[in-house]
Design goal:
single chain, disordered C terminus, seven-stranded mixed β-sheet, alpha/beta, 12 helices, about 10% strand, about 325 residues, two-stranded antiparallel sheet
Amino acid sequence: MGNHFIGIITHFDLYFLWRCSVIVVTVIGTIAAIFTTMAFIPQILKIRRQGGEDLSYFMLLFYLTGVLLWLAYGLIIHAPAVIWANTAASILVAIALIMKAVYPSGKLSQLPDTRISAGLDGGVSLPPLTLQGGRRLRIAVDMDEVIADAFTPHLSIYNWRTGQNVTAEMIAKEGVESAIPAQFRPLFDAIPHQPGFFDNLAMIPGSERALQELSSRFDVFIASSAMEVPSSFAAKFQWLRTRFPFIPPSQIVFCGTKEILDADYLIDDSSRHFEKFGGTGILFTAPHNAREHAGLRVHGWDEVLELLPVKREAEESVASQRLVDAPA
C-alpha cells in the first residue's frame, strides 16, 4: 500500500510538472507573439513620419505571405495564440503596404494635420546635404509660430478684451474664420500692431537647440514677413539678437514676400509662402494652420531634426572619426 501511495504521489508530481511546463511554454509563446507582432508598429509610425520610400515591396509581400501561412497553420491546428498573433501581424503589414503605396515620401497627416507629412502633391524630394561646389544648404526659418510664440499672447489679449474664451484647440479644429466672430476680427487683426507686442515673446520649445544644431550643418537664415506689421522691425530684431545671438545680423531677413529668398528649405507656419518659393517648403504646425494641407509638415523642432539629415550626418561623422582613431 505504501508503494501504491508513493506511486500516486509520483504521478501527481509528474502531472503537476507537466502542467507547469505547458503553462510556461504557453506564456513564453504568448510573450513572443506579442513582441513579434508589436515589432511592426514602430515601422508603421516611421512610415507616417518619413514615408515608405526606403521599404522594399518584396520584403513586405514576403512577410505578409509568411504571416498568412502561419495564420492558416494556426487555424488548422486550432492554436489561438498563433491565430490572433498572425491575424494582427497580417493587418499591420497590410497597413504598411498601403501607406507605402499611397505616401511614398511621407504621410498624410491627420485632421487636423499634426506630424511630418510628405507626398500629398506627388512627393517631396529633399535636396542633398551639400550642393555642387561644396556650398552648404540654406535654411530659411520664419519667426512667428516657428521660433517665437506670438499666438499665445495674441489669443490671450483677444480673450481679455472681448470676454471670449477661444482656445488654441478651437482654432485648430474650426479655423480662425469660424472661431473668431466677424465683429471681432478687426480687433483680432490689430493686436500684433500694438506697441510692445513682440518685445517679450516666448521661444517655441526646442527652437534654440534645433537652430544651433542646424547652424552647424547648414546656413541658417531667419526670414520674417515683417512687412505685414512694419512697426515690428526693431522689436523683432532685438528679440532675435537676444534669444538667438548665434544667428548673425547678416542672416536676418525682413521681407514682404518670401519668393525672393534664395534658400533650399523654408520652414514657415503659412503654406502660402511656399507657392512661389523656389526650394522645399516645410509647414510648421500651429493652431491656425492645423487644417491646411501641405506637401511637407512637421510638428515641433524634434521632427525638423528628424526630417533634415542633421542627426544622421553627425552620427556618421562620429563613427568615421572613431574608425580613423582606432588602433591598427
